[in-house]
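Lab notes, practical 5.
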Amino acid sequence: MPDVTQHIEDLTPRQIVEELDKYIIGQNDAKKNVAIALRNRWRRQNAPAEMRDEIMPNNIIMIGPTGVGKTEIARRLARLARAPFIKVEASKFTEVGYVGRDVDSMIRDLTDLAVNMVEKEHKEEVQDRAQELAEERILDILIPPEDEEQSRAGDGARDEPGFTIRETEETQVEDEQRESLRQRTRQKFRDKLQRGDLDDREIEIEVTSDSQSMMQMFGPMGMEEMGVNLEELFGNLGGNQRKTRRVTVEEAREILTQEEAEKLIDQDQVKEDALERVQQAGIVFVDEIDKVAAGTRTRDDGGQGAGVSRQGVQRDLLPIVEGSTVTTKHGMVQTDHILFIASGAFHATKPSDLIPELQGRFPIRVELNNLDEDDFYE
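Output from the prediction step:
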């Protein structure tokens, strides 16, 4: 198992709090608790293999009014840990069977973010090689290689009976001189290309069509829940469709570099690393958790029957937080070790209004205070 948190191994909880202090004013209790939760992940990675599955994350529930830094603390923590992070609003989800998104979609969205994150990292590793290949493709456009038919015609002429050995040698010398001249010209253009002298020149390049992304955009709802990736299912239906674009050399370098980088990375390895990172380092921030607490309290404002759906969201959220397996288009994701941070203002409700089972899955409660005059001055 790769150590997905090795970059924070030297940060103690005190140092993590100091990093958070650079961006968030006050709220020391909340910072301490999230710092300890992050450090515990590193400790788990270094625990004996037979004990790792027994160490569960301590999920956190933050209580405080809007604007005191609840979301920013979680976002900065994820950025510090380079962990997949997603912020969702509990009030946007509905119980299974109702119209709307179900709670499993937060894990699918988190997995998509992790795949993009890991893919970007893998591309950065091969960026230098991709730039070299992109430059070679641009040079091939600026200085086309010798026509193969002409080369074969020359070879056929040498095989004719009337073609003497001397003429053959002279032709070989001419070919060598022509190739040497071509290489020198290519090197001159390469130097100009690297200096940026050709950036404003327009050329025509062939790029891969975006038909696969369109297939993903217009795919039927519900296919993702079944773990079906339409992009892979229909990706080879029409082959690798390519189209011609007329762009400047500067734009061509960027487009071709990205295309070559995609060829160099292993997509299967990207998905494997992304799934591992989600399962071992993912962070889900569930905002407005108070909006799904005690739905019966809202019936006096005309929301008849809303409590059933809201409690249903809690029941659907419970197995995700406890630890279950969610099917995504990239593979199966186990949520046992994903860190969940919930937050809410709890003006009209209390954390105790949540169903008892869900309360037990958020053992750490932190109250955030309103910012005072000194905090704003700081």
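Observations recorded by the TA: The chain has 15 helices and nine strands. Residues 1-6, 211-221, 296-306 have pLDDT under 50 and may be disordered.
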